[in-house]
Amino acid sequence: MAISKDEHIVKRYDQDLTHLRNLVLEMGGLVEDQVNRAMDALDEEDIAEAREVIARDQLINGLEVKADEASISLVALRQPLASDLRLVMSLYKAVTDLERIGDEAERIARMVVHIYDTAVSPPSNKLFRDVLAMAELAKAMLHGALDALARVDADKAIAVAQSDHDLDNQFQDGMRRLITYMMEDPRLIGHAIDVIFMLRSLERIGDHAKNIAEYVIYLVKGKDIRHTALPEPSEQTLQTG
Amino acid sequence: MNTTATTINSATHQGTLIVAQAEAPLKTGPRVIDYNDRRTVGDITVPDPKMVCRDVNVYYGENHAIKTVSIDIGNRQVTSLIGPSGCGKSTFLRCLNRMNDTIPGCRVTGEITIDKENIYDKNLDVVQLRARVGMVFQKPNPFPKSIFENIAYGPHIHGLAANKRELGELVETCLIKAGLWEEVKDRLEEAGTGLSGGQQQRLCIARAISVNPEVILMDEPCSALDPIATARIEELMDELRENYAIVIVTHSMQQAARVSQRTAYFHLGDLIEVGDTEQIFTNPQHRLTEDYITGRFG
């Protein structure tokens, strides 16, 4: 609620908060890029790009450590309270989810290498239909969550958290279709299992994006809505906070 | 946010409770409270209050120091009063045992009760009231007497001990409760003023509890103490709150957060917000509270 736009009396405090925020947003941008590139690598059967994604995960891990240090030193040295406290805690938790999304992107990239860097003939395109569809929604959720975090926009965050349900449904549909393919043609089983792992990664990316969105809602509203039914965004929610 | 939040419309001097509509969480988001809105936010009431203050105004001559403040003081809990210098928190604290009576030109209106008894009643014995509502000050102020006499003086004049032996036991009990016994038991005849600052403050707390008070008021009790002595006093407050209602004025927000269960924020004589300490420090509803506790306000 009451989130003040004014500066702190101690200017250094504002600089510390901005530093942490920038680290997390930088990490978010990098993670989003990793997911996009991993999916591009899959789409274009580009093993070199996939290998680059795998290598770049180290950068994300490095940023995670830096952001965690910045959070801990803020708590130790500034004792943040009220909206400052909610900001630091939200960013601190978002960092963990971002790092995991980075891991999922790396996992997808490893799958791309695994699938295309062998003598075995590449899988038929129909297996990837659900992966590409899910990737669009997962990427949109991640983008939305990061945007909500950058703009401190609770309504955008609510919309992101709500779309996780659609992603879960797509995951279930995709799994059902893969099972059908495998029953029709057992020769597809090897590739289908690879695809299942990718679907799983995308579903997790959605879960982490939802978590980040929930931290944003907590940051703005001071209310923990995790593990509760989400309200429909309404005129009223647009006006509060 | 707080579905039990109520608003006191103090501006109308009616003290009526306007209960915020309890809707689905999130949708209730409290109104964005304007900087200029001086009505108290939060629930001023507690179940089974020890003291009840309604529409309290304090004037120092022309100066309106406390503006229609209403709040309950809960039993067996610590209530902290916070706010910038000159916001009236100490003035308000001093209303609770009529310490303001001693200030010339000071006028108090409204109602303050302890166990439903009006403390500004003309027939009330102020000395008796101040025994029931004890006070500990910013600067430790032991009497220039021995440690023993510092504690024994109050019980003696209030006739709380029948003989020397009982008095001795009472002094020991109070010093034990104040966590000072082990440090002074072998030198009870030495001057109280010879103790360290932290020990002196615990001596003053022992003195305050020696007359069986029901409420203990503390006006920045740790501001002259080092962190270790401060921690001792805070630990002591946590133990004492099992038997007393404690009200503390503090400039340290961390201290308010550590020791109190309820926090009230004052600003220029208005009670701006009151609520559970955890809520006040994680999710205050009023911008003035937010700005003060996040260090954005001078």
Notes on the structure:
The complex is a heterodimer of chains A (241) and B (298). With 241 residues, chain A is an all-alpha fold. Chain A has a single domain (5-238), classed as Up-down Bundle (Methane Monooxygenase Hydroxylase, Chain G, domain 1). Chain A has helices at 11-43, 47-78, 82-116, 129-151, 154-184, 189-221, 235-239. Chain A is elongated. The model of chain A is unreliable at 237-241 (pLDDT under 50). In chain B, helix 4 (164-177) crosses helix 6. Chain B is of the alpha/beta class and 298 residues long. The two termini of chain B are 27 Å apart. Chain B is globular and about 60 Å long. In chain B, the strands form three sheets. Chain B has a six-stranded mixed sheet with strand order 9-10-11-6-12-13, sandwiched between helices. Chain B has a four-stranded antiparallel sheet with strand order 5-4-7-8, covered by helices on one side. Chain B has ten helices and 13 strands. Chain B has helices at residues 89-95, 126-132, 147-157, 164-177, 181-184, 197-209, 227-240, 253-259, 277-282, 287-293, and strands at residues 6-8, 17-19, 40-41, 49-60, 63-74, 78-82, 106-114, 117-118, 133-136, 215-219, 245-249, 262-267, 270-276. Chain B has one domain (37-293): 3-Layer(aba) Sandwich (Rossmann fold), CATH 3.40.50.300. Classes of the chains: A mainly alpha (241), B alpha/beta (298). The A-B interface holds A 1-4, 6-10, 13, 79-86, 217, 221-223, 225, 228, 231, 234, 236-237, 240-241 and B 1, 24-27, 29-33, 253-254, 257, 281-287, 289-291, 293-298.
Distance between the termini of chain A: 5 Å
| Strand residues, percent of chain B | 25-35%
Side-by-side strand order of the widest sheet of chain B = 9-10-11-6-12-13
Overall mean pLDDT of chain B: 87
Q: Largest chain-chain contact? A: A-B, 30 and 29 residues
What's the CATH topology name of chain A? Methane Monooxygenase Hydroxylase, Chain G, domain 1
Any idea of the CATH class of chain A? Mainly Alpha
Largest sheet of chain A: none
What is the C-alpha radius of gyration of chain A, as a whole number of Å?
20 Å
Q: Tell me roughly what share of residues is in helical segments of chain B.
A: 25-40%
Structural shape of chain A:
elongated
Q: How many DSSP-defined strands of chain B?
A: 13
Rg value of chain B: 20 Å
Structural class of chain A: mainly alpha
The number of distinct β-strands of chain A equals 0
Q: Give the uncertain stretches of chain A in residue-range form.
A: 237-241
The overall number of domains of chain A is 1
CATH architecture verdict of chain A: Up-down Bundle
